[in-house]
Amino acid sequence: MDFDKLREETQTIIDDVIEKTCIQAGQIFVLGLSSSEVNGGIIGKASSAEIGEVIVGMIHKTLKTKGIYLAVQACEHLNRALLVEREVADKNDLEVVSVVPQLHAGGSGQVAAYQLFNDPVEVEHIVAFAGLDIGDTSIGMHVKHVQIPIRPVLKELGWAHVTALTSRPKLIGGERAKYN
């Protein structure tokens, strides 16, 4: 794996997704990551701590400079719980659950985030404004109800398929309503 290329492509993708989603400071951005898929393997079968560190490190750094909160989705073995800073859990009244992510129970992204965050905690549910899915990890359950698919400038990171989601408020009121 060419880690310099991985850093460069991760930066390109996160910059593009931030621009296309119009996410703002104070909002939550969810990341789903399969380092196995990035590495050319099958999701959950070829996890790489190094790949997780590179990708999460770049995304965390970029979001943090913009005041955007990162939530990292766990794998299915932790029921797709999310690792966040305690500040996010407290601010959003999220229920904290007890588990420490491991490479094969949580995934490389969560392990990397656990090391990067100041005060990491796991929560079961979150409602994010937008997110990035690297390796078809199914982040949709964590993004606001009306989701809009985003096509990042790069469609793959390593061998992994890359997609993103943003959201918008629900349109209510029927034919008499007007919208901004």
UniProtKB/TrEMBL annotation:
It comes from the Bacteria. Gene3D superfamilies: Hypothetical protein TT1679. InterPro entries: Antibiotic_NAT-like, DUF436. Belongs to the UPF0340 family. This is UPF0340 protein HNQ37_001421. The lineage of its organism: Bacteria, Bacillati, Bacillota, Bacilli, Lactobacillales.
